[in-house]
């Protein structure tokens, strides 16, 4: 079998999406595998953000798999990585990992990571071949939301002036850089706004930015219908970090209700123990459980002193 790995093209997005749903739906045992993910979407908007970081596997002119690589400054991750079930156990996934590692080298990524099913030792072994190591569980948590607690010091990126947006992105980088040097989420903030995927909420206090959360909501985004999904969120560490984290969750709940969604979803790594337990106390419950794999085997921003929400899927 002659497998070629290359960049995915615009006219192949629908095919790649079909293979992705078929592969994951088959893996988790859905009766109709292509219904995996419902009306949530991952591949198209990520391709639009950086088409040079989305790779396809091709055999005899047909797309049989893909892998998406994400650049958050000093941190990078990849996934979803998917291979058509007819081509499982033939080395295709390994071939799709190779260009992701090349991206990390080109970007001078200091820490790479991925989210993988906790119950899949075969995949653990695959990624360990590339230097990734198993660390803490990541829990995808969900909460039904019908009402919210107003937070007066909250603003939305969509409502900011151009100057305010520049200052907001600058402040967001200063915050992420404070928890892990070089961590950069400006592209996620700008992508959500430019592609109409959702909004970013900002929490302020007298000292400046106390937290922010990049959120998708609705069909055609990574959230899906009736859902607000926190792609990334973080509260300022140090004094009152737990309080700011609670207020940031208040802002996310407010966004959920004002956008007429009924469900809030966010991921948290269990190494951030206090953040995880604060979410449980607020009524969040586990929906999916995976494990974070790191390369190198260091914590990065997955630490007890960090109050962050993220999802590397």
From TrEMBL:
Pfam families tied to this protein: Acetyltransf_7
GO molecular function, one term: acyltransferase activity, transferring groups other than amino-acyl groups
InterPro entries in the record: Acyl_CoA_acyltransferase, GNAT_dom
CDD domains for the chain: NAT_SF
Domain N-acetyltransferase: 3-152
Lineage top rank: taxon: Bacteria
Name of the protein in its database record: GNAT family N-acetyltransferase
Species this chain originates from: Atlanticothrix silvestris CENA357
